[in-house]
Specification:
This protein has about 475 residues and is mostly helical. The protein has two domains: about 5-240 and about 365-475, Orthogonal Bundle (Hypothetical protein af1432), CATH 1.10.3210.10; about 260-355, no CATH class. It is about 55% helix and about 0% strand. The chain is built from 21 helices and two strands. It has a two-stranded antiparallel ribbon with strand order 1-2. Helix 14 packs antiparallel against helix 15 (about 320-345) and helix 18 crosses helix 21 (about 460-475). It is globular, with a radius of gyration of 25 Å. The two termini are about 45 Å apart.
Length: about 475
């Protein structure tokens, strides 16, 4: 919103190649978008799990298709907000390309095997700054991707061990669009074993990117050493779009595979509803009861089942046996409809589409920050936000935490841990690919060497990690002639 020359400054003072022709037909953010699309990190998202393992079916969404859906929703919201601003004669505008960029980039830092892969790397890196997906995304965009040849030889690390890499060399405003958590990650390295086993990644950015974050904030706000709350409007749009996509499309995957039907949402076990209620009350600072959550779920899918409660109500003057027969008949019809919605794409797709459309239409401008327009805020109808949170947390409790998914994730956590231990042990670094080995040899501190190993593993797809692990541990490893 309201873009200035400051927003167009390069992230690490590396300017555009002056030999390239001027391109007045596209913005700097369009160019950043192109650099992201063509990056290896973005392509590798197709091999990383979203909810269900991709090798099980070609229908399931992966991190790449999820990111594309988040980007589409982000762009739609930006267009919707621009329309609202125009109708109100406001002289502000959101760049839809930048909102789309944020959606495409937001999951770059996810390691293989989902959140348990993230937890495994975090435990291994606990004494070296930890590991977290959002922090890794910023590191990929500002350091790990290779776009510019730099003065520090091939590794990008100078003789003093200083990291000179610039990643995709993006604008500050593009980098700000993925900075969801303005907090430097720090762990107490004296944590006890009991607490260590329960440890979850802290959301934020690594100490290694602290100076970059400061530059982002200073340039985007125009205030030196800016210390206020920082979350740009594009980042806010991406954040709510991610929740919308997760709450609807992941649920659609669960319907398609037969793990859930719409009726299962109404008849969910008490422990799932209890956990969903607790999380919603904590996240939104509410005091909802379990019956409130059940009513919200019922409201979401009521249109598919509305005629049947009416018919039962009309039978109040029937005999008890007739009432039971009518009830059982209605239940049977409702069950068939529920099964059809889950299994029939012509019913399943509109169900998802209506939810996404309703959620998107209820996002509005909250406040325009006239001093720092980038920090203007959005809002969403509280009732709609509650629906999104209910579906998001229901999917998490019923699917992500289910044994069928946990078994896969548990295996993934074991694989990630084993690879890290091997590469970090004695001369395990000699197993690193040549380009990664150069960087490993160039850094000086132990924690920096561990970070190089972590970067390498985090960039793996699920299948790459599995094959790498099989070479290390199985009796029938992959052929040595297959390159990594």
């Amino acid at each position: 919103m309201y873009y200035t020359e400051r927003d167009e400054e390069r992230s690490l003072k590396i300017k555009r190649d002056s030999s390239l022709p001027e391109e007045p037909y596209r913005t700097h953010w369009s160019r950043d978008y192109a650099r992201l699309i063509h990056s290896p990190s973005f392509r590798r998202l197709q091999g990383k799990t979203q909810l269900f393992p991709g090798q099980e079916s070609d229908f399931f969404r992966n991190r790449l298709t999820h990111s594309q859906e988040v980007a589409q929703i982000s762009k739609s919201i930006a267009n919707k907000l621009n329309y609202d601003l125009e109708q109100k004669k406001q002289d502000y505008e959101i760049d839809p390309t930048l909102a789309e960029f944020a959606g495409l980039a937001h999951d770059l830092g996810h390691p293989p095997f989902g959140h348990l892969g993230e937890r495994a790397l975090n435990k291994k890196m606990i004494d070296s700054g930890g590991f977290e997906g959002n922090a890794q995304t910023l590191r990929i965009l500002t350091k790990l991707e290779k776009k510019h040849e730099i003065e520090s030889k091939r590794s990008g690390i100078d003789a003093d061990g200083i990291d000179k890499r610039v990643g995709l060399n993006l604008t500050f405003r593009s980098l700000a669009s993925i900075l969801k958590y303005d907090k430097k990650i720090h762990y107490d390295t004296n944590i006890g074993e009991k607490d260590f086993n329960k440890l979850k990644p802290i959301k934020g950015y690594y100490e290694s990117e602290e100076n970059i974050v400061k530059e982002i904030k200073d340039y985007v706000t125009g205030v030196k050493d800016y210390s206020g709350e920082f979350k740009t409007i594009e980042c806010q749009i991406m954040d709510i779009s991610d929740d919308i996509a997760y709450s609807t499309f992941d649920l659609e995957d669960a319907f398609k595979v037969g793990f859930l039907e719409p009726l299962d949402l109404i008849a969910a076990p008490d422990n799932i509803i209890e956990n969903v209620t607790k999380k919603i009350n904590r996240n939104l600072n509410l005091n909802k009861k379990q019956d409130d959550i059940k009513e919200i779920i019922l409201n979401i899918i009521r249109e598919y089942f509305l005629p049947y409660p009416i018919e039962i109500e009309r039978g109040v003057h029937l005999s008890d046996n007739e009432k039971i027969d009518l009830f059982l008949s209605a239940v049977g019809i409702a069950k068939n409809i529920s099964k059809n919605i889950a299994s029939n794409g012509y019913l399943r797709a509109p169900f998802t589409s209506k939810l996404v459309g309703r959620f998107t239409r209820n996002v509005d401008i909250d406040e325009i920050n006239k001093t720092i327009p980038a920090l203007s805020t959005i809002k969403i109808n509280p009732d709609i936000l509650l629906e999104i949170e209910v579906l998001k947390n229901f999917t998490y409790e019923s699917q992500v935490l289910s044994p069928k998914v946990k078994i896969v994730e548990y295996r993934g956590e074991e694989i990630v841990s084993a690879i890290f231990d091997t590469l970090n042990d004695n001369k395990g670094f000699e197993l690193l690919p040549p380009d990664i080995r150069i960087i490993y040899d160039s850094v000086k501190r132990k924690e920096d060497k561990k970070r190089v190993i972590s970067d390498f593993i985090a960039g793996m797809t699920d299948s790459y990690a599995l094959e790498f692990y099989s070479r290390l541990k199985t009796v029938n490893p992959q052929t040595i002639f297959k390159p990594f």
